[in-house]
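DM from R.C. (forwarded with permission)

"hey, sorry to bug you on a friday — could you get me a structure for this? deadline for the figure draft is monday and I only need the backbone to look sensible"
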Amino acid sequence: MIDFRYHLVSIIAVFLALTVGLVLGTTMLQDPLLNTLQNETADLRGQTEDLRTERDVADRVNAGGDQLADAAAEDLLHDRLRDLDVVLVQAPGADADTAAALGDRIEEAGGSVAGRVEVRSEFVDPANTAFVDELSLQVSADPGGLEGVGTYEKAGTEIGRALARGPERDTDADGDGEGDGEKDDKDEKDGHDPAATLATFVEGGLVSVHGDPAGTVDAAVVLAPASAEQAGHEDREAVNTVLAAFTAALHGRVEGLVLAGDVPSSRGHGMLARARAEEAVFATVDMAGRPMGDIVAVLALAEDIGGDGGAYGVGEGVRGFMPDPLPEPRESASPSPSPSPSPGGDEARRASREGE
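My reply, with the result:
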């Protein structure tokens, strides 16, 4: 009986001590604890407000930068692509509005948009790899020369060859330094028909072609998939790897090429990140879709035509924000009748191009 009472008293004493401790603890610590939590909450709220303010300021700075770029675009781009025909190549998921904006900048730089090629999702579908390979060999005038070449390098080579303006494709019968629009018969002799090659890929459901770019292209702008369109795709890395290989092969057939995409596409498994990781020899720009980025893309293309393409923008591993020094304006293919520019020359040239 003594043992039982002893244990009972011990248990009561323990619970009493806990109760007293809790009461005293909450009473003594309540105010300091609440004050600490309130102070930390206030600090976090202040930090959030500071970050929001910084973001708003950054947004205003970027908007101002775009306005400034728009205002300076004519001087920055003047004649950088003069007399050049440029094709727009849209990867699956590329933003159509960005493609249209880049087309406007190309024309502002004195170039012309020869046409637009949309690469369809079927082109990069792993289930169609053998079909893409077979089609590329089928249209090639030299299938043996493609032995050991990857599937999408083959496709890029053949589509690039079909697009590119070869020296034999636009003869200069009157010797005025400009082509006369007459095709010689070399393509027929070597069994290569640019229009038929593009038509084969179109009929295969792999690409869509707008305009008539076959055999007319000097340079290309390849638009990477918008990062939002690829978000969550399990095969994103594989798709962007084959698109980068296709782009590299295409670059080998034209005078110049720039791969343009948004900033997120330069990170992770994005197409620009993939191309830069493989040390692409063509130009890349990671700010396409906003005025300053589209202008930088055209300047990077002009630089690449000169043989020195670089990586530009704000992503990792870039050479700089934009080419520095800027590429020089191109001289006209034919001599000017007078060394002095006529008043309103820029407007007249633009009106002439629009009337063609």
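R.C.: lifesaver. The first strand starts at residue 85 and ends at 90.
me: no worries. Residues 168-186, 336-356 have pLDDT under 50 and may be disordered.
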